[in-house]
Amino acid sequence: MSSSTTTPTTGQDGLWSVEEHLDDILATVRPLEPIELQLLDAQGCVLVEDVTVPVPLPPFDNSSMDGYAVRVADVEGASEEFPAVLRVVGDVAAGSGERVTVGAGQAARIMTGAPLPPGAEAVVPVEWTDGGLGEGPATGMRAHSAAPEGASGEVQVHRPAEARAHVRARGSDVRAGDRALSAGTVLGPPQIALLAAIGRGTVKVRPRPRVVVMSTGSELVQPGEALAEGQIHDSNSFALTAAARDAGAIAYRVGAVGDDAETLRSTIEDQLIRADLVVTTGGVSVGAYDVVKEALTGVGDPDEESGIGAGGGVEFRKLAMQPGKPQGFGTIGPDHTPLLALPGNPVSSYVSFEVFVRPAIRTLMGLPEVKRVSARAELVCDKALGSPAGRRQFLRGSYDPGAGRVEPVGGPGSHLIAALAHANALIVIPEDTTSVEPGADVEVVLLG
Q1: pLDDT tens digit string along 67-116?
Q2: Angstrom distance (rounded) from CA 15 to CA 116
Q3: Could you give the CA distance from residue 344 to residue 216 in angstroms, rounded to a whole number?
């Protein structure tokens, strides 16, 4: 089926493994403190306590149809040829406080969501009646404002109804005392709807983390602006800001910062007021213009009470992975705000985000599962894929969940943005594997 060539495990040449770097990040990052938020402000946040239903939902028996509330005995055996003729004693509309009682030989015109009136045992849809017009089956009701007389007179019912037909029972959705939502639930539109329905105006949650994203490099130009010689458009900050939002964060993109260490330091310091996490991209390798490394190396003065240097400092590392070997991590500022410094090549930057930054964001949110879902798939390719010895390689892939197969997209180059745009998975080749044959069983990390 497949064959592979193995090499010694990682840990050589002072390299950090992927797990060591991620473990260090997750040991430092802590979930944000819970706060009470209005429902719409809590969208995307994580509940920190169970929510119990105070009253049943629905709180009363109500109609699921527009029609007539009737007694079962009064419509027994009804047909179009021999309809049951009932006297209409009034309207029951949703939200109205009027009380109508249905007695023998009577019916009340009732609207969807309106409470079942005393004496009534079932609801017959208006389409089963003549609508009070004395003609054939009705297709609907006339508006009450246009024809108030519809709430009186007689109605012919053409079909029988069983007890409780078209009646939503009190508490049939949730009962008082039931647990509506459990702690750890991410609040989306359906969950917010349920909270509103049971009367909760606020809820206690961990807030969505605020993530500041900035790219570095004097060659970077804002999209939409013309390129001069040697310039490229800034794509990393857009990709990572979008990725942070996809992970659940409130993300702020900062315009690209040029290759000046003091400018970068002051920019980061200005952003700390709105950051639970700072992410930079570029400037972390060994070049003469690697500004992030220059600006943040040595940061972390225990005697400094404010500013960027008040945190624990940032350490720059080399990881046993491809792409994404150069990485930086630490805390800065008086609140010890976590900072992750990612490499600048687009694919390296994005892969690093998925492997390290996304778990950090999900940890800040207080979620129990912080990593992307992985699966196993059969590798589809024309020839064996090579991988550097002692490195965990992440290749872009197109994964077909129905067939259980994955196909590489693009080459291994860390600058190939177009291939990344067509990938829905990362193919993971372990550190001890230097060659993977077509048909091999591989791990895939699912994106999105």
Answers
A1: 999 999 999 999 999 999 999 999 999 887 778 999 999 999 999 999 99
A2: 72
A3: 8
End-to-end CA, the chain: 30
Q: How confident is the model at residue 4 (pLDDT cuts 50, 70, 90)?
A: very low
Q: Is 360 exposed, middle or buried (0-12, 13-18, 19+ CB in 10 A)?
A: buried
Encoding tokens for residue 112? 């969807």
Centroid of chain to Cα 74: 52
**Using alpha carbons only, what angle is made at residue 362 by residues 344 and 330, rounded to the nearest 5 degrees?**
50
Strand intervals (E) in 248-293: 250-257, 277-281
Hey, what are 149's tokens? 């007389």
Helix axis angle, 18-28 relative to 358-365, nearest 10°? Answer: 30
E strand or H helix at 352: helix 346-352
Task: Name 121's Cβ contacts closer than 8 Å, sequence gap at least 6.
Answer: 70, 71, 72, 163, 164
| Of 371 and 417, more confident | 371
Tokens of 341: 């410094």
Q: How far is it, in rounded angstroms, from Cα 2 to Cα 441?
A: 8
Rounded to two decimals, the pTM is: 0.84
Residue 409, token pair as written in the block: 């997209």
Long-range contacts of 171-178 (CB under 8 A, 24+ apart): 171/56, 171/57, 171/58, 172/58, 173/56, 173/57, 173/58, 174/53, 174/56, 174/57, 174/198, 175/53, 175/56, 176/53, 176/54, 176/55, 176/56, 177/52, 177/53, 178/52, 178/53
Taking the C-alpha atoms of residue 99 and residue 92, their distance in angstroms, rounded to an integer, is 8
The CA angle 215-217-223, to the nearest 5 degrees, is 65
Q: Quick one: which of 246, 254, 223, 428 has its CA closest to 324?
A: 428
Please give the DSSP secondary-structure letter assigned to residue 159: S
Structure tokens at 225: 């602006």
Question: What sign results for the dihedral spanned by CA atoms 401, 402, 407, 409?
Answer: negative
CA distance 233 to 382: 34
Cis bond leading into 223, ω under 30°? no
